Amino acid sequence: MAGRPREFDRDEALAKARDLFWTHGYEGTSISDLVGTLGLSSSRIYAAFGTKEELFREAVALYREGEGGAAISALQAGSTVVESIEGMLRAAIVTYTRPGRPRGCMVVIAAANCSADNAAVMNWLADCRRARTRAIQDRLQKGVEDGELPGLVDVQALADYFSTLVSGFSTQARDGVPRAKLLATIPMAMRNIHDLRQ
Hints:
Elements: H1 10-24, H2 31-38, H3 42-49, H4 52-65, H5 70-77, H6 81-96, H7 106-109, H8 119-145, H9 155-174, H10 179-183, H11 186-197
Helix pairs in contact: 1-2, 1-4, 5-6, 6-9, 6-11, 8-9
């Protein structure tokens, strides 16, 4: 005998949970908040998604697969290192300031500070951010190998710089800094690469 079909759209519920965590953070989102937003009892939430942490991790994965992955997609899509880095910065700003959506980067802000009980969540998100830095470093290294950047450039330091800038965009966007003001910083940031190429 077939089991009873679910009475809710799991994908829709996960998207709502993502936006709730994105807006209020991991510790700032309670089970009662999830119950109210998803319109499901806590027992149904646990049955469908497991623990709050498991739901959060799945919500972050959904974010990274969707709008949260736009910056890395732009980084990898550029045909030149300049196009890649500039595209990443622009995509990050657009994502973090999209009208009607939570502001900032979910991976940066959702668990920036956690109690000791939730250190695993904070450390996991730190790993996600380190993965972004590695992706930037890999693209810069390819720029060196392709002759677009000089061989003596410190790609690690340059990758750290651009990763820090992206995290800063998230904080600024969260603080309400307009998109246009953030976009205006890109030419200054790109001088770091243009100067190296001269």
